[in-house]
Each structure stands twice: as C-alpha cells, then as structure tokens.
C-alpha cells in the first residue's frame, strides 16, 4: 500500500470540479452524494494519501484502506508515509503544494491546519452537505481545532488530549483516596495532594509530587489561561490576552508550585531510560496524554492498580478547559484530482470504526460521540480522557500562533527558572506578539 508520488497534478479549483461532477450526476439521473441511500458514478482514480504515521497507526490504515477500496471501487488509494518527523512532514507537504504536486488527502497536526487553510491550499470541508452531516458525531472542541475563520478544513483523526494521571500506590501510601470522585478538582486541592506526595531528603528531591510539564513547555500555562476565560489571541486578532491578571495568575501558580510548594524542582533526580517517568518511583503525578500509560503497558505494569486519570484541575473546580487538545486532522488538497473521492476517503478514515481502531492502537480516546458505549471507552483508564474532549482547550488557528507559542515557551521557561519575574516574562512575550499581529 505504500508508494511515492510520480505524477504531476492538473490543478483546478475544487469547487469547479465538484460542480462539474454534480452536473454529470444529474445528467445521468444519479443522486448527489451524502443523502440516505444515495449513489453516484465514481471515476477510476488513484488517490494519493500522505500519512504521518508509522506503526501502530500505519497497521490500522493498511488494514482499512483495502476495505475502502472495495467499498468505493474503482477508486484506489496509494498510501505514502510522508514523515514521522513532524517538522519534515510539514516541510514535505508544503514543498508538494509549492510544486503543484500535493497529495489528495493528508494528515496534519493541530498547529498547522492554518498553514494550508490560510493560503487557500486546503478544501473547505463544511461546504459539502455530506461532511456537515458526518461532522455531527464529533465532539465540538476537537472539531473546532480543524476550523479557520469559522470554516472547517480538517476532520479529527487522532486525539492527543492531556489530563492528570495519579499514581494510586503512592497516594495510598500517604493515606489519600484514589477513586476518581475524590481526585482534586481545583488547583488548591491539587496543591495539597501534591505536597503530600512529594518526597525530599534534605535538599535532595527523591520523588516529584508533580512532574510539571511547563518547565519545558507552555501548554499547561495555556490551559490555565483558558480556564479563566482568556484566549491567547483576542477575537479581533490584533492583540494577545495572556499578559493580564489571568495570565499572571496562571504562570505564578506554576512558579509557586516549584519554589513555594516545592512539589517539583529544576534539580530533579535522573529518570531511567526505557520507560516513562510515571512508571518509576520518582514521579507521583504527571500531566500529559496517554503516552505514559502506553509506556507502562508495554512494560507489563498493572495499570488498573497503578494509575488514576482525571480532568485537569481548575481554579473554580467547574470544568471549562479540562484538557489540552492536540493530535492529527485529515485534510484535503483544494487541487485534488477528484473532490468526491477525496471526501469519501476523508470521511471513511475519520469515521467511528477507523477512529476507534486508531484510538485503541494509541491508548487514546476516539473523537466520536457514538463511541461512548464501547467497552474500550468505558474502561477506567480511557474514560477520563474521553470525558475531557468536551472541555478541551482549542489551539487558536492564526497564521502567527506558532511564532507566538515559541515565544511563550521561551518566556515561561525563563519564569520557571526565575530568570525573569512572571510580569516581565509575559510583558516581553506580549510586546513581541502584538508587534507580530499588527504586521500580519
């Protein structure tokens, strides 16, 4: 199923192609796609599908693509592993668009929906009735990641949602309850739990109460900002909203967790290689996706006995931004050789059956509401991740967001290392970001 592009495209507006297809169908007395029991005449075409995934998602795709080809014959699909390195993936697909040789359908991470939607390279999916109907089964926040200027360009495929994971054995050791109902719902409650779990011997940190991701990343800060009703970029797109009292409160809370509450430290113990830190005696709580659970599963650890996940704590305790949403979305090139076939493939790959198989391969939540009753979703480890999808923090789809996020990572690291005060760090990032937005 894996191949490479060897042809050049005869690029044409997708809308014109779609209209032409509709005229042909009408002339033949065949219904348009998307309606109940609808049929259509399909062209013999080989779609180019570029994926970012090696095994195990590759195995899922290679299992289901023959099913698609049988169902939608004579349409065929040539799958290409574009790159598992995300930066190289974006570079390769961007180069393909620049040379007028893009794939028909391709996978793209959440920050770069805008990379192809903004210049008009991607097909607007919600311009098609069948896609609008198809998208009703998705949770709103993950689907919103695929939108740019309120138009849909990407359909949710693989969800990378980040929530809290607690080590049950360590919590029981200090007398803390481990049932999900009793886990911390507010940051104040969380602080007390983490302080009981951290272990110091003199000035040496032996066990982290919480492995604070923000020491090398800005995502936790961004979620905490969203929990207070503020966006990274204001609705008018002309200024940022992270440098006010809400942003200062979020970042100061994280700084205080390290230097006041001492639940983490820049001088950490060295983590062993080969297993996620949550699978060691060195970490009691971790915020992240299901990667740590998958790592522990591969190490044959008893996950049900060891891990209790739950939504990210909030300042108020009311779920608003209980997770950080990343992952992968399926997109269609506007210059696709066959919009109907490409839409069929995109909807097939983002349907509940494939979505559940992809999720199970990654120990992640499927993005569909209709998957709720599946035994996999109802499992104690997966259910909190699935529940978080309705409260996910959505990446702002703005052409300058990637540069703004890079700056935020820089200044939040400075604040966490106490090289700058919280106010100074956020003011610096705001000045830089606002100048970008004005020049956009």
Kindly list the characteristics that best describe this protein.
single chain, 440 residues, alpha/beta, D-Maltodextrin-Binding Protein, domain 2, 2 domains, 8-stranded mixed β-sheet, two-stranded antiparallel ribbon, 12 strands, 40% helix, globular, disordered N terminus
- The second-level CATH architecture of the largest domain is 3-Layer(aba) Sandwich
Count every helix, treating DSSP H or I runs of 4 or more residues as helices.
18
Strand content: 5-15%
Instruction: Provide the CATH superfamily of the largest domain.
Output: Periplasmic binding protein-like II
Radius of gyration: 23 Å
> Given the C-alpha coordinates, what overall shape results?
globular
Number of strands: 12
| Structural domain count | 2
Low-confidence segments, given as residue ranges, are 1-38
Class inferred from helices and paired strands: alpha/beta
CATH class of the largest domain: Alpha Beta
User: Mean pLDDT, as a whole number?
Assistant: 90
Query: Order of SSEs, N→C?
Result: HEHEHEHHHEEEHHEEHHEHHEEHHHHEHH
Largest sheet: 8 strands, mixed
Fraction of residues in helices?
40-55%
- Terminal-residue CA separation: 42 Å
- The CATH topology annotation of the largest domain reads as D-Maltodextrin-Binding Protein, domain 2
């Amino acid at each position: 199923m894996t191949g490479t592009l060897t042809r050049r495209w005869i690029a044409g507006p997708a809308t014109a192609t779609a209209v032409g297809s509709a005229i042909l169908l009408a002339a033949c007395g065949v219904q348009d796609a998307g309606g109940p029991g609808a049929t259509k005449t399909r062209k013999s075409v080989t779609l180019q599908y570029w994926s970012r995934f090696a095994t195990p998602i590759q195995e899922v795709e290679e299992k289901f693509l023959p099913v698609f080809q049988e169902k939608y014959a004579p349409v065929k699909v040539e799958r290409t592993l574009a790159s598992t390195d995300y930066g190289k993936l974006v570079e390769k697909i961007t180069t393909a668009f620049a040379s007028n040789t893009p794939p028909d359908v391709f996978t793209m991470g959440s920050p770069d929906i805008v990379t192809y939607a903004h210049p008009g390279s991607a097909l607007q999916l919600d311009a098609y009735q069948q896609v609008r109907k198809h998208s009703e089964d998705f949770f709103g926040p993950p689907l919103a990641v695929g939108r740019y200027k309120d138009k849909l360009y990407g359909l949710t495929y693989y969800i990378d949602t980040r929530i809290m994971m607690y080590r049950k054995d360590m919590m029981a050791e200090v007398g803390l309850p481990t049932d999900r109902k009793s886990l911390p719902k507010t940051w104040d409650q969380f602080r007390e739990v983490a302080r009981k779990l951290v272990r110091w011997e003199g000035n040496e940190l032996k066990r982290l109460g919480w492995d604070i991701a923000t020491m090398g990343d800005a995502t936790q800060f961004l979620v905490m900002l969203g929990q207070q009703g503020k966006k990274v970029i204001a609705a008018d797109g002309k200024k940022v909203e992270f440098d006010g009292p809400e942003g200062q409160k979020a970042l100061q809370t994280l700084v205080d967790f390290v230097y006041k509450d001492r639940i983490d430290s820049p001088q950490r113990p060295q983590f062993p290689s080969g297993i996620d830190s949550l699978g060691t005696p060195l970490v009691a709580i971790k915020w992240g996706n299901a990667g740590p659970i998958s790592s522990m599963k591969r190490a044959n650890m008893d996950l049900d006995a060891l891990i209790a996940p739950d939504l990210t704590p909030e300042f108020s305790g009311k779920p608003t931004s209980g997770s950080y949403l990343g992952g992968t979305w399926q997109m269609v090139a506007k210059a696709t050789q066959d919009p109907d076939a490409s839409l069929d493939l995109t909807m097939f790959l983002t349907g509940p059956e494939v979505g559940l198989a992809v999720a199970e391969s990654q120990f992640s939540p499927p993005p569909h509401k209709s998957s709720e009753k599946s035994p996999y979703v109802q499992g104690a480890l997966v259910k909190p991740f699935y529940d978080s999808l309705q409260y996910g923090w959505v990446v702002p789809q703005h052409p300058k967001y990637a540069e703004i996020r890079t700056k935020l990572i820089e200044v939040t690291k400075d604040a966490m290392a106490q090289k700058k005060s919280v106010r100074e760090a956020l003011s610096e990032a705001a000045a830089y970001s606002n100048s970008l937005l004005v020049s956009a």
